Amino acid sequence: MKKLSFLLALTFILTTVVVSYAQMGAAPGQDVKRNLEKELKAIELSVDPSNPKAAKTAIKPATWIKRGEIFHAIYKDKNAKNLSADPLTESLKSYKKAIELDSKDRAASGIKTGLLLLATDIYQQAIEYYNKEDFAKGMISFEQFLEINQLPVVAKDNPNFVDTATMYNAGLCAYKSANWDKAVQYFTEGLKHGYNVGSTADLLKNAYLEKKDSVTALKVLQDAFAKYPDNNDLTVSLTNYYIKANKTDEAVKYLKLAISQEPTNPSFHCALGNLYEKLENQEDAIASYQKAIDIDNKYHDAYYYMGYYYIVLGDKSNEVARNIPAKEVEKYNKEINNAIAWYDKAVVMMEKCRELKPDNTNAIEFLKNLYYRLNNKEKYEEMRKLLEK
Predict the structure, then answer these.
(1) Fold equal for 162-262 and 295-389
(2) Where exactly are the structural domains of the chain?
(3) Which of 201, 188, 205 is nearest to 244 (CA)?
(4) Which of 110, 132, 314, 379 could crosslink 342 through cysteines, CB 3.0-4.6 Å?
(5) Cα atoms in the 13 Å half-sphere on the side-chain side of 160
(6) Cβ(73)–Cβ(36) below 8 Å
(7) Of 214, 160, 222, the residue nearest 191 (C-alpha)
(8) How many Å apart are CA 308 and CA 59, to the nearest integer?
(9) Residue 184, SS3 per DSSP
């Protein structure tokens, strides 16, 4: 169920890799006992500019393919973790160097195989970083995965493929690490390709707000809504935006549209009641809360907000009564009776809240005050004792 005035749930979405890496076989060094420390020393010596013998080996694509394979194997071997702080990044650098040196594409097949195997573990590493909430590193890994799929040696098999799911994941990691520029970059690209439109547009809007650019933030939602008018997530995002901007009339407009698309969502009707309260439209506010209850008679929030609204109306009648001259007894009694009537209705709503959520101390607190005003000492004591537990 969609809710208003809350950030839409940030959903972590997996992607489909360009090819099935499972079909490529085991990763380098997975089943072979190796002395990776020795291999690493030898390969680093073969690319060391200060080593005269490296002048010949460092210009060969095969040397860098081997270096990429060794660093990938280091990542796979739990006992070799001390050999490199970031082996997958070093592996990727090596394969890119091999591409640079392979001017005649003679090593393309070996490079491609290594990159496809590497991509699997880079993506898995991105997931692990995400789950550990190390979002900055997660973003880097997702970016590396995107980079691999965009390298010509890989992309030529599927040149029109746009990995929007990984873009979203990279943007999500950027967002969660407060890297707003990167978040804007990836969410903009994802929205351009129509990926997960409601969530992507809402996150992009939030990123612009974090950058203190409210004009572009609103434009993101408006442009997306113009392109996808039937997307109710966008309608909700626009509603939330206008609520937070205190533009109640605009919020009502979009919320009504959301209701027309999803008429049985009680949270929408409850939110509309809130907005009508702000507009001092008493009749429509109560009708909206009641509609939410009619749709779902166990929807706690509708009872709570309607009960609270009845208390507000009762307090208004009390305030009017206090300002009536003492000689106007009939007029005074009328307002007092109005207040009591509103409070009685509020009791019904708050008691229903307590029935649905017995531990809701807010409802109990309201009931205690209501019973005090209504001079119901027995119920007042009952509520007071509940709050003291």
Answers:
(1) yes
(2) 12-160, 162-262, 295-389
(3) 205
(4) 314
(5) 0
(6) yes
(7) 222
(8) 76
(9) helix
Contact 144, 89 (CB under 8 A): yes
> How far is it, in rounded angstroms, from Cα 40 to Cα 46?
10
Our CA angle for 376, 270, 341, nearest 5°, is: 25
**Count of alpha carbons within 13 angstroms of residue 203, beta-carbon side:** 34
For residue 8, give the DSSP letter.
P
In contact, 41 and 277? CB cutoff 8 Å: no
Q: What is the mean pLDDT of each run of 10 residues along the chain (389 residues)?
A: 37 39 41 84 96 95 98 96 96 98 95 97 98 98 97 94 97 98 98 96 97 96 95 95 95 96 96 96 98 98 98 96 93 96 98 94 96 96 93
CA separation for the pair 212, 2 (Å, rounded): 27
Task: Quote the tokens at residue 6.
Answer: 């809350």
CA-to-CA distance for 352 and 301, rounded, in angstroms?
A: 10
Question: Which residues lie closer than 8 Å to 372 by C-beta, 6 or more apart?
Answer: 380
Contact of 367 with 383, CB cutoff 8 Å? yes
In 3D space, the residue among 358, 320, 326, 325 whose CA is nearest the CA of residue 339 turns out to be 320
- Both structure tokens of 323: 């300002």
**Fold designation for 295-389:** 1.25.40
Rounded distance between C-alpha atoms, residue 40 and residue 74, angstroms: 9
E-strand ranges in the chain read none
Report CA dihedral (75, 80, 81, 86) to the nearest 10 degrees.
Answer: -50
Give this prediction's pTM: 0.79
Q: Using the structure block, give the residue that is written with the tokens 């909206």.
A: 288
Nearest to 313 by CA among 258, 266, 273: 273
**The domain 162-262 is classified under which CATH number: 1.25.40.10, 1.10.10.10, 1.10.510.10, 1.10.8.10?**
1.25.40.10
Cβ(331)–Cβ(324) under 8 Å?
A: yes
Residue 287, Cβ density class (10 Å: 0-12 exposed, 13-18 middle, ≥19 buried): middle
Assigned token pair, 130: 């995400």
- One-character DSSP codes across 153-194: HHHTTSTT---HHHHHHHHHHHHHTT-HHHHHHHHHHHHHTT
For the chain, the residue count is 389
